[in-house]
Amino acid sequence: MGVTLAKIRQNLVLHGTVANKGIAFGKLSFVKRADIGHEKKEIKNTKAECARFEKARLHAITQLGALYDASLEKLGEQNAVVFQIHQMMLEDPDYVSSIKDVITKEHSNAEYAVTVVAQKFEKQFLEMDNDYMRGRAADIVDISRRINEILMMHDGILNNKGISYNHEGSVVLAADDLVPSETVQLDQKAVAGIVTSKGSNRSHTAIFARTMGIPTIVCVGDSLTEDLEGHFVIVDGNSGRIYVDPDNETIERFSEIKKTDDVQNSHLEEFRGKPTLTRSGNKINLFANSGSLADLELIKASDAEGIGLFRSEYIFMQASDYPTEEEQYEIYKKVLETMGDKKVIIRTLDIGADKTAEYFMLKQEQNPAMGLRAVRLCLANRALFKTQLRALYRASAFGNLSIMIPMITSVDEVIETKQIIREIKRELDEQELQYKDDVEFGIMIETPAAAIISDELAQHVDFFSIGTNDLTQFTLAVDRQNADLENYLNPYHHAVVKLIENTIINGHLAGIWVGICGELASDEKFLGKLIQLGVDEMSVVPSSVLSLRAKIATLG
Ligand code: PEP
Ligand code: MG
């Protein structure tokens, strides 16, 4: 029996979601937290209890200011900013009044009120159907815990705040979840890896882990049990596996992989802040793809030279109703301001097919990928298109904006869109609203039709960006959503490559630049071909920027 259990233990492999790549070795150490008492106590003087809460809240805001300053140096502005966000959350009237309401109506102590309100808000965030907002649940827990710790400190009950864990040797930290202020306190030298049973790879904790370069796996589930404390593990942040008490053969295998990774990664840092040049000195613009404001931190940390594809439909997918011109304007402005003088290519709405939002009430279609989507939908619904284009043009005054139109199949669509843009400019002039007159205007080449007539299209636009995901789907007649057809969805297919080549040649003949923003741009195996074809810009997943810049330096 004992032998069997030992054997099972030795073969135990846990699975989770990769939040940061890399290999880590160490002993599992579960995070221990100070016990925060939050049982309900009856309070007679609720006014005094509200004042007690208020004092702790203000103390928390000051503490967060100090934490922000300390993190600035360690993690940079883009990561430290979460503590400013926490300060704002602590100022949120809804959050503050909900706590005071519980104190007053239930005659309860502040600790209890903070805890129940935190649970309510956490639940609301976790139920949202977008990763970014779900990630905010950890922030609510974090600020509420901070207030409770301070309340207990003020009462002299707690003086040792924060988390503790076993620091001996190399540690793989384990927890149900970590909150940002816990992650930032970690000793980077001691913590080799992080594994959590819950969490999200979009949370600030995951972003911090990435910035700090700690291999991290989240969402491991219930199999990450505390009886594994002290067991030796290998965290494989490439596959999302955690090997518990691995055998010698597995240890050797991962030691070799780690050695190769370490050499490669230290080498990659040399490319940070440098331009992307081929071996013969040709400049390539190496940009990153983005879906929302939440990705901006990652993009800044990735050292991308701009945003080559901002998928604006994500804004619509995250909303419960059509985002107004003002709402969109604020988002685009924020993106542009954050990126400074770097180019930001915002793609107009590409809703339809797999990307939908209920309030659009799109008709059921037999083949939605080939249906009323993207630019077709926008041209059929002028008000929708005009609202977005107005927001984009107004935001253009705040940075280096380019606008890109998806799913183009004809010259007429381009001409019609440009006509709408002229109308918008006239309106903005009349209203004396600022915008940049020379916003670059480009289109995606992601249908075979567009690639074939790219010579004609090039006469009407400033740039092309090749969307190889859809170009592959439509050229090969293979549904990109159908996992059973994976082997058929071959972006290296000669037909796809020929269309890419045709587009680049026609773009260059017309004197415009040609980029690529589909997944194929991040594929190192195809990089040599792209350089050979003379692509000018590549927009890739943020985590690939440095490795691609290093690879490009060896090519062409
Ligand atoms: C593409 O089709 O290659 C592309 C970048 O657009 P999306 O993946 O958003 O359809
Ligand atoms: Mg596409």
UniProtKB/TrEMBL annotation:
Asked if the Swiss-Prot or TrEMBL record annotates the protein with the keyword Phosphoprotein, the reply is no
The top EC class is transferase
Q: What main location does UniProt list?
A: cytoplasm
Q: Which InterPro entries match?
A: PEP-util_enz_mobile_dom, PEP-utilizing_PTS_enzyme, PEP_util_C, PEP_util_CS, Phosphohistidine_dom_sf, PTS_EI, PTS_EI-like, PTS_EIN
**UniProt-annotated location(s):** Cytoplasm
Asked if the keyword Transferase belongs to this entry, the reply reads: yes
Q: Which GO terms describe its molecular function?
A: phosphoenolpyruvate-protein phosphotransferase activity
Positions of the PEP-utilising enzyme mobile domain:
170-240
Cofactor(s) it depends on: Mg(2+)
Q: Which reaction does it catalyse?
A: L-histidyl-[protein] + phosphoenolpyruvate = N(pros)-phospho-L-histidyl-[protein] + pyruvate
Using the record's annotation, list all stretches that form the PEP-utilising enzyme C-terminal domain.
268-554
* Entry EC number(s): 2.7.3.9
Q: Which UniProt keywords apply?
A: Cytoplasm, Kinase, Magnesium, Metal-binding, Phosphotransferase system, Sugar transport, Transferase, Transport
Q: Where is the Phosphotransferase system enzyme I N-terminal domain?
A: 15-136
**In which domain of life is the source organism classified?**
Bacteria
**What's this protein's function?**
General (non sugar-specific) component of the phosphoenolpyruvate-dependent sugar phosphotransferase system (sugar PTS). This major carbohydrate active-transport system catalyzes the phosphorylation of incoming sugar substrates concomitantly with their translocation across the cell membrane. Enzyme I transfers the phosphoryl group from phosphoenolpyruvate (PEP) to the phosphoryl carrier protein (HPr).
Family assignment from sequence similarity: Belongs to the PEP-utilizing enzyme family.
Q: What is this protein called?
A: Phosphoenolpyruvate-protein phosphotransferase
Q: What is the lineage of its organism?
A: Bacteria, Pseudomonadati, Pseudomonadota, Gammaproteobacteria, Aeromonadales
